[in-house]
Write a structure and sequence with these properties.
By secondary structure, the protein is an alpha+beta fold. The chain is built from two helices and seven strands. The two termini are 18 Å apart.
Length: 94
């Protein structure tokens, strides 16, 4: 992932923390810029990430061009690999 993309995610993450939008139906927080979105994990789902959200962790899905490309867990960005796993990229709180 390019440095420019990482910086864009950092910028959107700051916006998510300070001025998020809310989906009317679910009440989940989100921010977007062009084709990039950060969306709060729905705790009602059955995924590992929903379980983390229910346990009190901050979990935000990163979506690019309608494809899930990563996840932010407690301020740390992990990109999804082709194998369906996540790989640590950077700490967004630095």
């Amino acid at each position: 992932m390019s440095e420019v993309f990482i910086e864009l995610i950092k910028s959107l993450y700051r916006k998510y923390l300070t001025k998020p939008m809310y989906y009317a139906r679910s009440g989940l927080k989100y921010v977007s810029y062009n084709n990039l979105k950060l969306i709060e994990q729905n705790p009602l789902k059955s995924s590992v990430y929903a379980q983390l959200k229910r346990e009190g962790h901050e979990v935000i899905q990163v979506i690019l061009n309608d494809k899930y490309v990563g996840v932010i867990i407690d301020g740390q960005f992990h990109r999804y690999t082709d194998l369906g796993k996540s790989e640590f990229v950077t700490n967004l709180k630095e």
